[in-house]
Structures are given as structure tokens and as C-alpha cells.
Amino acid sequence: MKKSPFVLVLALTSGVLAWTSVAHAQEADAAFPKPPRAESKFGLELRFGPYRPDVDSAFSGIKPYEQVFGDSTRFMVGGEFDWHPLHIPHFGSLGVGGLIGFTSASGNAKFTDGSGDSAETTKLSMWLLAALAVLRVDVIARETWIPIVPYAKIGPAAGLWTSENGLGISEVDGVLGRGKTYGMMYALGGMLMLDFLDRQSAKTFDAEQGVRHTYLLGEFTWADVNGLGQSGALRVGDKTWTTGLAMEF
Amino acid sequence: MIRPARLLLALSGAALAVSAALPAEAAFSVSTGYPRREGTSRIFANATWDATAANVGFNRADCFDTKQTVLLFFTEVPAEATTVEIWARRDNTSCADPTQRAGTGATTPQCYKVASWTRDEVYSKQVSIKPIQVVQAIDKLTNVEDPASLDPATVCAKEASMPPTQVYLQVMAFSGTTVVGFTSGGTGAAGSEKIVALQTSYDIAGPNAPTGLTLGAGNKLLVANFSTTAQSTSDFKGYRAYCFPGTSSGSTAATKGTDAALEVLDDAAVDDTAVSDSGDDSASTATDASSTGERAADCPGGDPFVPGELPGPEIEKYACGESSTLTGEMKIDGLMNGVPYAVAIGTTDRQGNSGPLSTVACAMPKETDDFYNVYRRAGGTAGGGWCAIGSGAAAPFGVAGAAFALALAARFARRARPRR
């Protein structure tokens, strides 16, 4: 695979910067020893990525989601708060976290008489909630010059969805177009520690705001929220990519 | 030198409850009574005037309402006074200077007479002025000599949109042409002379009409799109939709916002051809009638809307929606499927004025398939609400989530507890 020269330059530059900084830090530490700081225990993520609820996978013929909303890309925005009480020396940390995300798709409802699109908007929106076990392998960023922290997450999840039309929440035969779907969530990703971009700012941010490190994250997310333990649930899961910013406190 | 005589003025509400003489140095009070709307006094003195506040002055309806009056009660009038007059101007500079009232040479008068009485007519008696007198003076810039001759259709008519405009009503006693009456409670004038000034405002035109009205249809609703500059009016409040229903493609129809919907339908001169094409796609497309009053073929006949004209009380029964949208899109719901509607949009301001109507557009709500309809028809069974945490086979997940949250909370609570 052909790599972009820019990527190579960036990687090399960041590696050199990281190595240089570590060296300087070690010299400084030797001259002025500081008391050891407690490990950071909290993490906050702001997440963003494409998301398409897997509604149509439950149907063999008609595809309700595609029929109404088409196939254009929609997005999920969200946040996650992690707590890492357990630190494993020379490896990483283990913790738990809570994730919340929101996605919505809207389109014009069609007339039932087949005369085309109406001016009425119909919408499917969903809140994704998950309780996650989080494993972070920060030994690489701590003990090598590569500022990357791989991680994995797993945990139960739920999707709270609502279908709306121009008059409010949809209703068919007295059944409200709103429900919940259970499932599991899995994620595998890596975080690029951004401190190397401006170490002085990173230190200031730490000293003044308590933010130890800032990361750019990239993650493969499998929201398997398709009705675990349920029958006939609306499938709102998806396999997708997520990016975002993370901060460690 | 100021003469010791003072003019004391008391304004009260309709009942004139305050009839006792005020102390000689007291400022009058105008905080009660006089035309109220939504509980707010519409005239006030010695207070900060705010152009964006609601209902603080005379509006168009006040001007047309010749029965509405401002009541005045003079408890003391200088003995040497021959007349008592009220003059209006747009700032609080004193009108005591004759040039401000008459103008000399190139000077344009800034004060215009609202009312005039002899001393005997006002002393210890109740007198009144009408809003139309104030409008005549401050908007038409003409002295009011004979209030009874004022024609609301002429005085109160105003085409262009206007913001609320500040007005000071200055009350003065005259001996001949010399001002002799002052009070310490007023404002303005040189030295220690102070003219009684009642601060109010007037606004007799609503915001401009929306233009380019188009309609889209949905299930029991219409979506109006238009462009407008009304939002830029300083006291713009919102839009108001008027819906005139035709006959249903079925046999009956009713409409939201119409107290006697069926009566409305009976009264309407229904054009049978208007609904002959119901069922085709005509309802889904916007139909914008021209500003000349012509209507498209799919419009119900006999609608009372006149583009460019102010909505009169006769079309109030067709009011079908309000919105303060800034996007130029307004959803009108609560309508009947299969009924063609003629729709016009008007504007309102915070002083209670309506602006002229837009052009008329027509469309017919029809049943639609929203996502949930399509999903259920495809065989989907989910839905019914979010309910409580956990039920049936899924309960363990809800319980697990709750337990996790509780454990987390307990952990934090334990760490937060001070250690001995």
C-alpha cells in the first residue's frame, strides 16, 4: 500500500519530538526530582462518526429505513465518561465507562396514494446508551516514543428510539412509535496522544485545568443493538467508524 | 419667575377612584386603569420607555375604537388660567416655548395640539381624550381642534409598517397665550419650570406581509413557506395563518381554528370544481395565487382573504395557526385530510397590530406514510413506548444497568467521605 509522504513526515516528526521530549524530561527529573503524581483516573470523550441504524436487516424484501430516509450518510454524536480505578504497571488500565450518543434521520413522508413526497417530515431518532468495560494499553505511549494508546471496550447497550411525523410521535393502531432495543457494544481503537504537537501547552493545560493528556481517537464501533433478549425489537445497531477527541484527568 | 399656582393632574382608571385632591406638590399618578391589554398599563409617566415592550401605547385598534378614552381629572387649576391644553411631541423637550407649537420662519413645529378645554370645563371635573386625537396630532402632525370631526378611516389608516414611536403628552394651563401652569412632577422646560408630561407611544401598523407564499401538504397539516422582512420590525411578534376550507372529497369537513366549522363550510360559496381533482398530486404541490386576488384552480371558492389588506374581524374565525418562526416556514396542523384549503398568512406585532395578508395559496392535506407506518406495514412489531427499565426477557439488562449505576455512585460517595 502506498503511503502518503505527509503521513510519513508527520510520523517521523512526532516520533523525534516525543523522543527528544522524553530525554529532556528525564534529565530534568534527575536534576530536580518531583514527587510521583497519581495516575489519571478519568477520561472524557467527544465522539463523532457515521451511523446508520440496521433497521432493514430484519426484513428480506421491503427496506423501511432506506425507503423513507434513503441511503445518504447520517451521523452520531456523543460523549463518554470513563473511570479507571485499576492501573496495571507496564501495561495499562482497566475501568468502566458510560457512553451516550444521539443520531437522527429525517425525510419527507410519502403520500399513501402514491402521489409522491409530501411536505411533511418524518424522523427516526435514537439515543444510544452503553455501560462499558474499558481496557487501555498505555504502556506504548508511556514507555516508547510512539504516542498511541490502543484500547478495547465491551458492555451492554440500549437504544431508545422515537419515530416522529409532522404531528408528533408516530402512532399506528394505537401503538406508539417509540421503543427500546437492547444489545451489546464492542469497540476497538487507538488514541493518538496530541501532547507532542505542543508540549508546553499540554503542560499548561495540565497545570491549570488538570487535563493530563489530550488524544485524537479512531475506533471501530460495533453497536450490536439489535434486540438482545427481545423479540421483534427495532434493530438500531451498526458497525461503523468513530472519531473524536479524548481527555484524561 | 414661576407663579405659585400649580397644575395638578390626576389620571385614574375608569372608575376614577382617586377623587380626593392631591397634595400641592404631588406628581400625578397614571399607573392604573387606562387602556389595558394583557394586564399591562398602556400609558405611564416618569418611567423608562422601552420600544420593544408589549402593549405600552396606542395601537391601531385603540385608534379605531372611538369609545376608548383617557380619563383626566384636574384637582387644581391656576385661577388665572383660561384654558388647559394637551400637546404631543416625540421627545420631552418642553412645548411651553411658542415656537415649538407654532413654528416661526423655517422652524417646523414640534408640538401638536391634542385637546383643549376652558378652565371651567376641567376644574374639578372629569374630561377625556381619545387615542385617535393623539394619533392625529403625532402621526398626521395636525392640531386637533374638533375631536368629534376626526374620521378613524382617515386618521388611523397606515399602509407602511412602523415601529412603536414614543410620544410625550404635555399638559399645560394657559392664560391667553402665556403658559401659567406647571407642576414639580413633570419634566422639561427651563429653570425650575416643569411641564406635566405623560409618556406613551403609538403604533398603528403591523409588520409587512410575507411574500412568495407556497404550501406543501402532509397528513392533517400544511406547511407554508414564505419570505418576509417582518422579523426585522422592532416589535415583530409572529405570523398568523388563516385557513379557508373547501368541501371534503368525502362528505364532511371541519377545520381547526373555526368555532363553527360546518357553518363556515355552509357559508362558503364552494366551487365544486375546486375539488374535482382531489386525489391527484395537485394537493402536494404549492399553489400561489397572484396578488390580484385570482385563485388557482384547486382553491376552494369564496375565500374571504384579500391580499395586501388587513385581516378584519370577519376572518378571525379562519385563524388556524400562529408561529414566531424566523425561518419563513410555518406548520399548520389540526386540519382535515381530503379538504382543500385556501391559506393566507398575516403578521402581528407586540402592540397587538396585524399586518396585511399575504397572497393566497391552496393545498389539500392527505394521508402520508411516515417511517413507523412503513415499518409496521413491512411486518415490524416494535414500539409502544420506552416504559420502565427492564421487562420480560430484557429485564436483566435493565437491572444490570441500574446496579452498575448504583455501584458507581456508591464508589464515588465512599471516596468523597472524609477520612478520620
Write out key terms for the chains shown.
heterodimer, A: 249 residues, alpha+beta, Porin, 2 domains, 20% helix, elongated, B: 420 residues, Immunoglobulin-like, 6-stranded mixed sheet, 4-stranded antiparallel sheet, 8 helices, disordered N terminus
Structure description:
The complex is a heterodimer of chains A (249) and B (420). Chain A is an alpha+beta fold and 249 residues long. Helix content of chain A is 20%, strand content 51%. Chain A has 4 helices and 11 strands. In chain A, the strands form 2 sheets. Chain A has an 8-stranded antiparallel beta barrel. A two-stranded antiparallel ribbon of chain A has the order 7-8. Chain A is elongated. By secondary structure, chain B is of the alpha+beta class. Chain B has 2 domains: 8-203, no CATH class; 211-363, Immunoglobulin-like (Sandwich). Helices cover 15% and strands 25% of the residues of chain B. Chain B has helices spanning 60-64, 98-101, 119-122, 131-138, 152-155, 261-267, 371-377, 395-416; strands at residues 8-11, 36-37, 40-41, 58-59, 70-76, 83-89, 112-118, 126-129, 165-175, 178-179, 196-203, 211-218, 221-227, 236-245, 319-323, 329-333, 341-349, 361-363, 368-369. The termini of chain B are far apart. At the A-B interface, helix 2, strand 3, strand 4, strand 5 and strand 7 of A face strand 12, strand 13, strand 19, helix 7 and helix 8 of B.
Q: C-alpha Rg of chain B, in Å?
A: 31 Å
Distance between the termini of chain B: 83 Å
Number of domains of chain A: 2
User: Percent helix among the residues of chain A?
Assistant: 10-25%
How are helices and strands ordered from N to C of chain A?
HEHEEEHEEEEEHEE
Q: Total domains of chain B, how many? A: 2
Order of helices and strands of chain B: EEEEHEEHEHEHHEEEEEEHEEEEEHH
Number of helices of chain A: 4
Structural class of chain B: alpha+beta
Estimate the helix proportion of chain B, in percent. Answer: 10-25%
Low-confidence stretches of chain B: 1-51, 184-193, 251-255, 257-287, 388-396
- Overall average pLDDT of chain B: 70
* Distance between the first and last residues' Cα of chain A: 38 Å
